[in-house]
Specification:
The chain is mainly α. 78% of the residues lie in helices and 0% in strands. It has a single domain (3-26, 63-535), classed as Sodium/glucose cotransporter (Up-down Bundle), CATH 1.20.1730. The longest helix is centred in the first third of the chain and has 42 residues, at 115-156. The chain is globular. Belongs to the peptide transporter carbon starvation (CstA) (TC 2.A.114) family.
Amino acid sequence: MNSLLLIILAAVIFIIAYITYGKWLAKEWGIDDSRKTPAHNRYNGSDYNPAKPSILLGHHFSSIAGANPIIGPIQAAVFGWLPVFLWIMVGSVFVGGVQDFGAIFASIRNDGKSIGRIVEFNMGSTGKKLFNLFAWLMILLVIAAFIDICSKTFTSVPEAGTSSFVFVILSMLYGYIVNRRRPSFWISTIVGIVFSVFSIWMGMMFPMVLSADPVINARMWIIIILVYIAIASVLPIWLLLQPRDYLNSFLLYALIIGTVAGLLIKNPEINLDMFTGFKTASGDYLFPMLFVTLTSGAVSGFHCLVASGTTSKQIDKESHARIIGYGTMLIEGLLAIVALITAGYFAAPEFSKLMETGGPVTVFSKGISEFLAVVKVPQKSAETFVSLTVTAFAMTSMDTATRIGRYLFQETFDGADKFVLSNKYVSSLITIGVVWALTLTGYPRIWSLFGTANQLLAALALLAIGAYLMRQRKNASMIVVPMILIYAVAITALILEIRRNIMEMNIPLAVIATGLLVMSAIQFKEGWKILSSMRLHKRK
């Protein structure tokens, strides 16, 4: 199979889906630009702050993507490239895009409240607390997994560590310039691109090695990253998240453009098998493991937390929800296809060796650097650029997730002493403290459980969005089938996770998995009763 044909096919399908299905969703839900959004109604210059769609698109994409659409497709490629490609296409168009768009829309219509608040409105306070606790636990897993990925990347590619933190500092400077000096769009964009290039150059000139011992070096990076996300989670959105994520989008565009240019010239074939079977050598089955391994490239529950946690508070007009929610999910699907191509570029023996020695990030970096080499980009520069891109998105997801974790924790204890559990600084520190404990478990075990919890959260988010739409007497048919599919996938995978962790005597993760199973079962039962009663009422 020719890789260029694969990416062109994906791009064409995504464009058609955005124009047709995305437009239909907006019509069915009643998108209305005459209504003021929460960014205007509740403007406070910090969390509620209207943003230009181009800037918000970059922020939202960087926040939802992280390293997931890169890691997931490469890990799932053990089943063959065809099932991964098909699920990316179907999932992005009919499941992930619908969830993301629906979460932003429902949040906008509920004063910028999180999905947890929407659950409370439609399913009561108990449902809200269960959902918030479930989402909070899932967020702990994703932050811990990304911290581990970044710390190891900064250890193996020290240039990326320097580049990443120079990038953060310059992003804050960029945020100040844009929001206080208000230069023209094109001037600010050019400055932003120059800042990005300068970050890469600084990394190559001054690689940051904290310790000669790789293990100690990685642990030191974990502490630094924890301190960083603690600070980032309470800073005003306009100072770091919006500008940094906008600049991140240029890294992505450069990555995709450079890769496509490399593909045009190199025109590589997909060397991995099209389909390897329903069971891998390690004992994993296509169902449900393909679906929980490949998350953000198709559907991710984490997206609904970003969509309703930070993005909905920055939407300037309701019509922007379509490009920010649905359109961005399709862009992420395209990135997942790029990641799949880098995996497929290597023959099975080499792919397996790279996965064993360095993991998905190494496969991605090596593949992209070889594609960029044909357009005369030096290998070291390419590796630094790719590593910076991956870690920049991962760090964006981490501090966005920490901020959302703080929101969820505050909402759960809303009404308590405002200087204790509902205080934003206390809730951020508690969230980060638990994350630090989880990092001691290690990335491989965390990632497996995270993927399962992530899909289960997506099913519950679809349930909440469906309940909201039906309560508002709007069409929810596009929600029900994806919800049932994802819930079946997640419950099956979660049961397997509990069994695996018990057999490996990993009791903490087994307890978390069991708690997630019980909470989701209770909530799904209550939510389904509400959906059923609403359908009966509608028929009458």
